[in-house]
Amino acid sequence: MPLPIKISEETFTPRQQAVLTAALDLLVENGDGLTMTAVARRASCSKETLYKWFGDRDGLLTATVQWQAAKVRMPHVDRSHLSAKVLRESLEQFARDLLTTIVGEVSITLNRTAVTHAAQEKDSLGNIVLENGPLAIRRRLKPILEAARDARLLRFNASEDAYRTFFGLVVRDVQIRLLLGDKGLTQSNVEANIEADVKAATDQFLALYGAKANI
Amino acid sequence: MPLPIKISEETFTPRQQAVLTAALDLLVENGDGLTMTAVARRASCSKETLYKWFGDRDGLLTATVQWQAAKVRMPHVDRSHLSAKVLRESLEQFARDLLTTIVGEVSITLNRTAVTHAAQEKDSLGNIVLENGPLAIRRRLKPILEAARDARLLRFNASEDAYRTFFGLVVRDVQIRLLLGDKGLTQSNVEANIEADVKAATDQFLALYGAKANI
DNA sequence: GCGGAACCGTACCGTACGGTACGCCTGCGG
DNA sequence: CCGCAGGCGTACCGTACGGTACGGTTCCGC
After folding, report:
1. How far apart are the C-alpha atoms of B100 and B117, rounded to whole Å?
2. CA-based nearest residue in chain A for residue B117
3. Strand D and A35 CB separated by under 7 Å
4. Three-state DSSP class for A13?
5. Which of A32, A145, A147, A200 is the most exposed place for a label (fewest CB within 10 A)?
6. Which domains does chain B have, with CATH numbers?
7. Does B193 have pLDDT greater than 60?
8. Shortest distance, CA A205 to any CA of chain B (angstroms)
């Protein structure tokens, strides 16, 4: 039962969304604690209903991840008015959104769930997370980078490389350390540094790819 | 039963290492397929022995991860003969080792296992992987960076920031995509580009942190 | 050769959980 | 008022798996 790529308002009824919220809460609270019985109890519905709506446990998991992942919003930038200032602000906004998302407990949970899933030869959850995370960023960022190149604000050969460098400069080792549960990297700890990290990453990216006049 | 941080030759008997090898093979082959029965069968030993040696399933998992993670070797660089050329080669070697490791199936499996574990409020495996992965790199790389700064080959304020930038430039989105099972990123696919990526990352790092004469 | 320790293989137990069946209640169209 | 669809709660089933027990075998020290 492959779910549609795009989740619209009517994909799930309000009642179903309440169930998905319960499932997500359980996931966040207690990683693998997503048992059908627990979801049913939390959502005050019967297991039979769960199976009717979502098919099986995997379907529920997929629906939960998909529904939540689609909520990640992405900044929209007007490509037609690019200037050095606008470009920098756009990059900073992307970096800020990316870091803020990655640091969030929901994102950590979803990524962990998808990684766990991927360890079982199933890549559906991983694809959903990728599609709504890194790849969504890439889709939004690449046109901007290319527009900036056209406007002589940036210099690079492949926008793919530029995007991936930006990603690396922003994320660094934060995500993997959070996923691995590094205690030296509390959420609040990272959040406090987001603004500084955003600025540093943007500066570095512009130093590498910016046309000289715009550094 | 906390295991020692450092794994020496005598930590496990050859027979025990054979068991751990079997466990690791099962992990790699089939992510969560690490059942005690499967390990016992694969290693031709009894479950009772497994419990006697490793306490419980978690102990076996921990021993497996720890034993394997400790195998990751790290380049050793002589800090006393730093030149621009030696520095560049050292950085490239670090980048190459890091990428090669990350791309390997064993590393992917270990990281996935540790992430899954971290989703259950247990951070022991995550700590082991961190300790033998990113943190090991950091321990080795930082002194080199600082020596290079002393030799006026690099410029930075905090070596921590420099290290993390290097990590980001090298790893970019490769690891998270591999962990999530991105099919657009096959192992062979990445391996073919390692040398180019190593050079690009090193160039970028030196462009950001190198003293001008050494770019 | 003998006793015991270590270990193999297997049978066994308890539990947790995915999935199903069923009885009951509620709301709604006719 | 009746019938029925949708859904709740619960009991139930089968299985997989962690963990234990036990008989049989090998090997080593004495």
Report:
1. 24
2. A180
3. no
4. coil
5. A32
6. 10-69 (1.10.10.60), 79-214 (1.10.357.10)
7. yes
8. 9
User: Under a CB-based contact definition with an 8 Å cutoff, are residues A208 and B204 in contact?
Assistant: yes
Kindly state the average pLDDT of the residues B21-38. 92
**A1 pLDDT more than 70:** no
pLDDT (tens digit per residue) in A18-39 = 999 999 999 999 887 799 999 9
CA–chain centroid gap for A107, Å, is 6
- Tokens linked to A96: 């800020």
- Give the pLDDT of residue A108: 96
**Beta carbons of B27 and B34 less than 8 angstroms apart:** yes
Rounded to the nearest 10 degrees, the angle between the axes of helix B84-103 and helix B105-118 is 70
**CA dist., res. A41 & res. A18, Å (int):** 12
Task: Output DSSP code: residue A210.
Answer: B
> Which parts of chain B are beta strand (E)?
none
Query: Each residue of A5-22: pLDDT tens digit?
Result: 455 556 788 899 999 999
**Displacement of CA A4 from its chain's centroid (Å):** 18
Beta strands in A121-200 (DSSP E): none
Q: State residue B5's pLDDT score.
A: 47
Q: Who contacts A51 (Cβ-Cβ below 8 Å, separation ≥6)?
A: A36
B45 token code pair: 């030993």
Q: Per-residue pLDDT tens for A177-203?
A: 999 999 988 878 889 999 999 999 999
- Measured between alpha carbons, how far is residue A50 from residues A1, A41, B159 in Å? 15, 11, 52
CA distance B141 to B74: 10
pLDDT tens for each residue of B154-169: 999 999 999 999 999 9
Dist CA B213 CA B215 (whole Å): 6
Contact (CB<8Å) A167/B175: no
**What average pLDDT score do residues A125-133 get?**
94
Record the tokens describing residue A73, joined without a space. Answer: 């919003």
Q: Which of residues 136-195 of B touch A (CB under 8 A)?
A: 161, 164-165, 167-173, 175-177, 179-183
CA separation for the pair B191, A12 (Å, rounded): 42
Rounded Cα–Cα distance for residues A170 and B165 (Å):
9
Tens of pLDDT along A50-68? 999 999 999 999 999 999 9
